[in-house]
## 1
Amino acid sequence: MPAETHQQRDDVTAVEIVDLLVAVLASSTDLADVGSDTPLADLGIDSDLALFDLCDVVAEEYGERTLGEIDLDELWSARTIGALAAVFARLRDRAERDEQSTGLEDPA
């Protein structure tokens, strides 16, 4: 598997993350019924392992370096698709601020 070292990605928005999560999670139910306000528990996302699986999906799509380090308390507090997407969007914002404050940039 190629390393992610040279990946570069534009800013990721919460809307893009919601769209990704809906596409992934809608396979277990009717797509029309799944949206940002859909409770994760209604989709079978009711364990830490299931949340980490979703983290992997988002990191694979957008790159771990784009998202930054996951805050487990925030992750576990997410109850809906929209809340989970907001957690990932905040991760991206934090990673970008850290990158700017340290002067470190991802080599492209």
## 2
Amino acid sequence: MELRNKTAIVTGVSKGIGLATVMALLEEGATVVGWGRTAPQIDHESFLFIETDVRNFTSVEHAYEKTVSKVGDDIAVLINNAGLGYEGYLTD
């Protein structure tokens, strides 16, 4: 898929796979809107961070509205990377 001049939304961009995904998309020429609870250390003209808690529907609605107002509604890629884990024994 040609990513140059395409817009992508990536959730969970603060670190790990989300951060690496953002960097890869930027290298391919995409405009990336990162949704997350903590801003990553990215200084790139084609990156926009929007504070979002994907566990909260209102927060996601707000992030989408802000995304559309900043970059338009022609979003080509959505990567739902945000994760949440619970630690403990299966029996518990």
## 3
Amino acid sequence: MRWAFAALLGLGALAACGERAPNVYPQSAHERFNMSCPPESAACVCTWDRITRTVTYEEYEAALSRFRETGLMDPRITRAKTQCLERHRE
């Protein structure tokens, strides 16, 4: 019994160290993203994955609004895009 409990604790610790699960986004947001960054591109797939794991849909929409108004993008989104472009040079 103790072994099973220890195993469960170990699995929980490993899960805590893993990557966050993606936040929920509506399909329409992904479709809009794909209009400017095609899903055939590994960098685009990576960028969308990182964005959805980093910011909530509400934060993403606020970042896009600020970008349209000021030309400044949320650093978390810029970081996600940069990391993916560097990793997936095409």
## 4
Amino acid sequence: MEKHFEEFNSDILSIQQEEIKEPGKYQVILFNDDFTTKDFVVEILEKFFHKSLEESVVIMETVHKKGSAVVGEYSYDIALTRVNIVIKCARANGFPLRCELKEIYE
């Protein structure tokens, strides 16, 4: 009987010593285009990314001037969901707004 417990205890020890890896993080990035209105981008940022009006305007201006901007960092599932929602909403409103996710390597 004691042998079984020794094996069990060594299994637990090896499991505890394994490094637990946290889920990866992904950036959600918006890209500039010549058709999507600034007001629409601000609305997207407020509605889907819960940014304040001030934050939304700063991000929108960065996208406009630099060509792209990181909107936020999320786990894969959340980042992918937000990208898909933004694209679906943009297309429904006739805008070609591009939104992508990019894995963050540490």
